[in-house]
Amino acid sequence: MEGKYNFLPSDYRFLSGSVGAEYMFRKMVAIRGGYHLSSETRSSGNYGSIGCGVYLGPIVADFAYLLTENSSIMKDVWYVTVGFKF
């Protein structure tokens, strides 16, 4: 769970928050889902997300897709990250 307030010029200040859940299988595969709430006129708006992660030794690969309305600027956004665990 996350919440934040953006201290920008007064016309662009807004409150936003997120909530999510993750299921980890054998410390190798993670399935995730979440929802982001924010101002639709001052930010990217409200959207859901689904994703997964794969852990192969020190290598981590994460994938996520944003579930938005057709008119959203965030429509059809995919996140792909690859990293290393120390």
- The global form is elongated
Q: What is the string of helix and strand elements?
A: EEEEEE
Number of helices: 0
Mean pLDDT, to the nearest integer, reads: 90
**Poorly predicted tracts of residues:** none
Kindly provide the radius of gyration, computed on alpha-carbon positions and rounded to a whole number of angstroms: 15 Å
Number of strands: 6
> How do the strands line up in the largest sheet?
1-2-3-4-5-6
Approximate strand percentage: over 45%
Largest sheet: 6 strands, antiparallel
Label the structural class.
Answer: mainly beta
Give the termini separation: 25 Å
Helical fraction equals: under 10%
What does this molecule look like?
The structure is a single chain. The protein is built from no helices and 6 strands. It is mainly β and 86 residues long. A hairpin with a 3-residue loop joins strand 2 and strand 3. The mean pLDDT is 90.
Which properties best describe this structure?
86 residues; six-stranded antiparallel beta sheet; elongated
Concise description?
The chain is an all-beta fold. The protein has strands at 2-6, 14-25, 29-37, 47-56, 59-67, 78-84. The chain has a six-stranded antiparallel sheet with strand order 1-2-3-4-5-6, with no helix packed on it.
